[in-house]
Amino acid sequence: MEQILFYFELGLTHVLDPQAYDHVLFLAALALPFQLKEFTKVVWLATAFTLAHCTSLALSVYKVIEIDSSIIEFLIPVTIVITAVFNILIEQSNAIRFPFRSHLLATLIFGLIHGFGFSNYFKMLMDSEPEKLIPLFGFTGGIEVAQLVVLTVVLLVTGLLFKIVPSWSKKVVLAMSILVILICIPMLVETFPI
Q1: pLDDT digits (tens, 9 = 90+) for 73-85
Q2: Backbone angles phi, psi at 79, to 5 degrees
Q3: Fewest C-beta atoms under 10 Å: which of 17, 71, 91, 194?
């Protein structure tokens, strides 16, 4: 029980660590186009992301797939920027309609990438563990709970803004998406594989 709690807490801190804000940034960008009444859809996206994230961790821990970390470190901010650009396209054009499954598929792919970003550190931790499945389950649970907290906060804040000034909804999504892109630019420059 102590082992699963340790990894559950590690999953929580992995998402909520202020030094590793890329995860929160991605989640914020992911939730921006949704309203609080669409919370179920956002939970589906969070769960898809968690499952994909932990799948790539498992593939790495069991040494099925290993990917150069410098490429992954660059792809993580790319996924965040793509998500923010996706939001801008949705808000700017009433003609463009993306089905929910497109969101889901993109989230799964991005979850795999983000999981490989944490895999080297996680693999180091797991080397001393004779049983790897229980820590993976604990870590997955921690990630899921932390993500739901972040997504709930984002939906509550944007929902409050939309309620205070309903005409701002598109402007808030656009402004926040642009802000996410601007925050990612230094990350892209810093991690660009040369």
Answers
A1: 999 999 999 999 9
A2: -65, -35
A3: 194
